[in-house]
Amino acid sequence: IHPSNLPTFSSGIILRSTLEDQSTVHHVALVQPLLMKAKKIVQDMDPEDELTYVRLRTEKNEEIIAADKDYFMISIQTPSL
Predict the structure, then answer these.
(1) Is the CATH number of domain 8-77 1.10.287.630?
(2) What is the predicted pLDDT for the residue at 6?
(3) Which positions fall inside the Roadblock/LAMTOR2 domain (predicted)?
């Protein structure tokens, strides 16, 4: 199974997607605020540190989020047991 990829600017503007439009907007709308909060938590714990990677795993999907200052990449895949 090929993962779905969503490269996105930090502002939420989607560069490209391998998902349907509605799913793309849904994932980015949920991930962007989570990522911004996680970045803030890391900065509050250590101002010299920076969040670069988040991994979320549920029963249905695994989302791997690589973060940078100007963009983030969401990769969604179905985990195998």
Answers:
(1) no
(2) 78
(3) 12-77
Q: Return d(Cα 23, Cα 42) in angstroms, integer.
A: 28
Using alpha carbons only, what angle is made at residue 49 by residues 26 and 77, rounded to the nearest 5 degrees?
30
Task: Identify whether the C-beta of residue 6 lies closer than 8 Å to the C-beta of residue 73.
Answer: yes
- The domain locations on the chain are 8-77
Q: What is the DSSP string of 33-66?
A: HHHHHHHHHHHHH-TT----EEEEE-SS-EEEEE
* pTM summary value: 0.79
Residues 29-59 pLDDT 10s:
998 999 999 999 999 999 999 999 999 998 8
